[in-house]
Amino acid sequence: MKFEAATIKDIAIALGLSTSTVSRALRDSHEISIATKQLVLEYATRINYHPNPIALSLKEKRSRSIGVIVAEIANSFFSQAINGIESVAKDKGYNVMISQTHESFDKEVMTLQYLASRSIDGLLISVSSGTENLDHLKALHERGFPIVFFDRIVEEIQTHKVMVDNFRGAYDATLHLINKGYKHIAVIAGPESLSISRERIAGYREALAQTKVKPGKALIKYSRYAGLHLQEVEQAVSQLLKLRPRPDAIFTASDKLTTNCMRVLKSKGIRIPQDIALVGFSNSDLIELLHPPLTVVRQPAFEMGQIATNLLLQLIESKKPVKEFERKILNTSLIVQASS
Q: What is the dotted CATH code of the domain comprising 64-163+301-330?
C-alpha cells in the first residue's frame, strides 16, 4: 500500500468541518473559537499531520531549506561543522540538505545543480580541492542567490565568508616544532588552489623565517585531493624520506592528511616522535587514543557552522539586497601531545 500523508481535507472530513476552518484553526486564527482550535489540533496530532512543505513553499515563495556542500561528511571537521549548521537551522525552522563532493569539481557542479533545482533558499559551501573554475557559483550569485562560504573560501565572489586563522594555526604548529628542537621540518598541504593550503603554507614559512631557516622546496609537498586518497600521502611521505638530511618532523595541513600521514609512517616502521615528529590539523575526537596521541591544531568547527548559517539566513530573510559582507576569522588552538 502506498503511503499517503494526512491532509487538511482528511481532518475536515473526520471532524465535519470545512477545509478553510481547519486551515485557519491550524494557523491559530482569531476567527476560530478556542474549542474548535483545540479539537482540530488534538486530531491533527493524533493522525500525525504535518503541513505539506511544497504547498508552504509555493505560498511563501520560500522552501525553508538550505543546501550544504562539503568535501566529505565522514571528515571530523566537516561533521562537526554540519552539527553547528543544523543546530541553527532547526531553531530557525529550516531544513538542511547535505551533499559531499569527495574533492571532485564535477561532483560539486552536479550537486549544486541538483540542490538549486530543489528550490533551496540558500547555500553553504566549502569548495572541493579541484575547484578552480567558479562559473557555476558565479552564475547563481549574479542572479541574487544567497551563498556563504565557510572554511575553504573563494575571494572572487563577494559574500559572507567564515574561516579560521589558517596562517596563525600553521605558524603556531611550526613554531612549536622549532621550539622542541626540530631542524628539518617538512609540510604536506592540500592543493595550492585552496585558500586554506596557501594560508597554512604561509604560516609555516613565516615561523621558519623567524628562526632564519629557509625551507627547501623539496620539504613542501602538495596533495591534489587534500589527503583523501592514501596513495597520495604515501607518495609524498616516500619522497620526503629519500631526502638528505631526512626530515625530523612533518607538519600536515589538514585532517585527512594528518591521519593518513600517521598511517603511512607507521606502515614504514617510522617511530613517532623518536624518528619523525608529527603535528597536524585535526578535529578528530580520537587523537588522544592514538599511539602516540597526536599534537594537533584544532578548529572551532561547530561554531563555524553556526556563524555561517546565521549569516546565510540573514541573506535569505533580508528585505533588501545586502551590499556589505562580513569576513569572520576564528581562532585555532594548539593541543600538544606525545607525537611532537
A: 3.40.50.2300
